[in-house]
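<tokenise_the_fold>
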Amino acid sequence: MRAIQIVDESGPQTALRQVSLPEPDEASPPLQFLSGRPVVVEVQAAGVSFPELLQTRGLYQIKPPLPFVPGSEVAGIVRSAPEGTALVPGDRVMAFCGLGGFAETVIAPAHLTFALPAKLGFAQGAGLILNYHTAYFALAIRGRIEPGEQVLVHGAAGGVGTASLQVAKGLGAARTIAVVSSDAKRELALRAGADRVVMLGERWKEEVLQASDGGVDVVIDPVGGDRFTDSLRCLREEGRMVVVGFAEGSIPEVRVNRLLLKNIEVVGAGWGAYALAKPELGPRIAAELSRMIEDGVVAPIVGARFPLEQAAAAVASLEDRSALGKVVLDVRAEGEEQSA
């Protein structure tokens, strides 16, 4: 099968190579921290995410031995599935695989493989699990959002950002405020359902405070960097700042006395390892997201699409901040026959 490997840690333009590898099957061992037989999926589309960019530079916390196939989420067709699951060969699915997604065939844990809703195409399915499960985990479980609360989303034109805007509405948020850095990203945040968009600049904090009538209840931050302290100042009393990632590159520090001023909280939201260790969590979140999809609140926004052989350009688009919405690899050409 065709696949993309990371062969060194020199960055996205040079670290990725197309190779030919044997296809995995149901007897293949799943990731070392999983148990049980996996689902084998013939991949139609693979999501491109920030962890893949970090992996090309050796900066991600999960460091498989080189070379390895990156890619953590896919959508495609079930080739085989373990007994006892609701999946059968030929089903359209989306799956979180952890590694191996940049390939024509992948194995994934059954508890993180879900039926692809009829409303969604493969490219949308490839952008749903990592971003939308993270958004739900950050908002509902870690951020404890209540209906009627206000939410501020940084990086609101990216995959996690657009997902957070939509999921917040699905959870009953009264107002969503998006922070973006360009006019194109402003338009995308509005398309994702933001009630108000604030341009990043010297006075963004003041604009957020004005738009929220004095402060928001929850901040979702997948960006990090020097905006962190002003984000804390945007919280109202008993507000929650949810740290999702550090796309800007620098990891901020907080002077904890700031938490006392309005009894605010800073909490982390690391969905991946948490969900892999708790098989009941994925289906629970998937059911909530299915409801939101049926209600028309959740619809993944696909940005640039690249063929598999252009994986380097796809990953590099995250580094140069040109990506809007979810970047996707079209692993198989449209209409290509599947063996399932």
